[in-house]
Design brief:
Number of strands: 32
Mean pLDDT: 84
Strand content: over 45%
Largest sheet: 8 strands, antiparallel
Helix content: under 10%
Structural class: mainly beta
Number of domains: 3
Oligomer: single chain
Length: about 425
């Protein structure tokens, strides 16, 4: 009888697995593609598919909630191992593995007919502009537009999964060949090509980052890690605000490890890969605040456990929510990412962030401001005394509330390895 039960269970498991699959329609296995690789995939299962992810050479390149994805991933030239993976609500993991070759000289898809168009209103063709350059464009076609990309001197610099874009891109001085390209859902491509000149002497259309003032300027809220009333969530910390459930906790007033004898201890665990936890502390509406300096120390013990460590300042004022999201992508891109609020995605900055040192206090300072253009501007990140300028601005999302808060998020890795982080001397200065 025991053997019959085992056989039945094995047959049931096989049947269940047979009803689950990951289907990748783009790119095709063995294909040669350009550097901005178009991924289109879907997953099916007997249970609800909760998330999908793209791994390139064993590193997470993209993750989204739901049972489908349609995105572009910028990849370096050469052969790459690609795995598209899905998870369902029962914890079942399904994968589809491919090998593709990325070639900088790969010809782009044929341009569409005259029935589709890319319209660029900024910058004007032949214009001389300052940096960052303001790009405004839209596209239309008989079939819905699935994505738009800006290429500068044949390199992809910006992609959005929509039929319009409005962004600022920092470019070096001199002449640049710019192509704004759109794809519809059938894969047809539409383009606009023009040449612009970037002059270092021409004022940029957005204000230059404001230098950080002396410590006495502005209002400082100190020892936020010691304040009571921190809020938290796990599902809301995932992709699209609908992630998987993690186990997590927070305790305050810890004497060790600590810098001032009162650190806050955060923990993350669970069994579902890439589960996250988010904590935030409301500081009351400060409608007049436009500039922010988020300063803190963090301590952790295992550099292999975090997928990413995220540090945020969020302000809702005047009907707009400004999300100053900044993360050290420890196991993915190994660089600092910032949050593109309007397009709801992480944008790599090119500023390196390998795993910060363990068993020591790391000092982090982040600088932001909201501009007169209702954009959130990321000024700089300083980690352990090394300052790097980000100088990127992004449109934001509507909001009907009034608030100001600081936040901290822990992201789980592919095995949801449990880990701990301590924060101390957390402060926010604003003016």
């Amino acid at each position: 009888m025991k053997k019959q039960i085992l056989v039945f269970c094995a047959m049931f498991a096989f049947a269940t697995a047979g009803m689950a699959a990951v289907s990748v329609s783009s790119p095709t296995n063995g294909s040669t593609v350009g550097s901005s690789v178009h991924f289109v995939a879907s997953a099916s299962s007997t249970h609800t598919v909760t998330a999908m992810a793209i791994y390139v050479d064993n590193a997470l390149a993209y993750k989204a909630s739901g049972s489908s994805l349609n995105t572009y991933v910028t990849m370096s030239s050469g052969a790459h191992s690609v795995v598209v993976q899905s998870w369902d609500s029962a914890g079942l993991v399904q994968k589809s593995a491919e090998t593709i070759t990325v070639s900088a000289s790969a010809p782009p898809p044929a341009s569409g007919s005259g029935s589709g168009v890319v319209s660029v209103s900024s910058p004007a063709s032949g214009a001389t502009v300052g940096s960052p350059v303001h790009f405004v464009a839209s596209s239309s076609a008989p079939d819905p537009i699935s994505a738009m990309t800006i290429y500068v001197d044949n390199a992809s610099v910006y992609t959005t999964k929509s039929g319009s874009l409005n962004t600022y891109i920092a470019l070096g001085s001199g002449s640049h060949h710019v192509v704004t390209q759109a794809w519809d859902i059938s894969g047809t491509v539409y383009k606009d090509a023009r040449t612009i000149t970037v002059s270092g002497g021409t004022p940029a259309p957005t204000p230059a980052p404001t230098p950080t003032p002396a410590p006495s300027v502005g209002t400082t809220i100190g020892d936020i890690d010691q304040m009571t009333g921190w809020e938290n969530c796990t599902v809301c910390a995932g992709a699209g605000g609908n992630g998987s459930v993690a186990t997590f906790g927070m305790s305050q007033f810890n004497s060790s490890p600590s810098m001032d004898g009162q650190s806050a201890h955060f923990s993350l665990g669970g069994s579902t890969p890439y589960s996250d936890a988010l904590w935030w502390k409301q500081l009351g509406p400060q409608a007049g605040a436009t500039h922010f300096v988020y300063d803190l120390y963090f301590y952790y013990k295992d550099a292999n456990a975090p997928q990413a460590l995220e540090f945020d300042v969020n302000q809702s004022v005047g009907g707009i929510k400004y999300i100053f999201g900044t993360q050290c992508d420890v196991r993915g891109s190994h660089e600092w990412d910032v949050w593109d609020g309007a397009n709801k995605r992480w944008m790599p900055t090119g500023i390196a962030c390998p795993a910060p040192p363990t068993y020591t206090w790391n000092h982090l300072t982040l600088e932001f401001y909201r501009s007169a253009y209702n954009q959130g501007t990321f000024v700089a990140v300083t980690l352990n005394g090394v300052k790097s300028y980000i100088n990127r601005a992004y449109n934001q999302i509507p909001s009907g509330v009034s608030e100001l808060n600081v936040a901290f998020q822990m992201d789980g890795n592919s095995s949801q390895q449990a880990y701990d982080v301590w924060l101390d001397k957390v402060s926010l200065r604003y003016w």
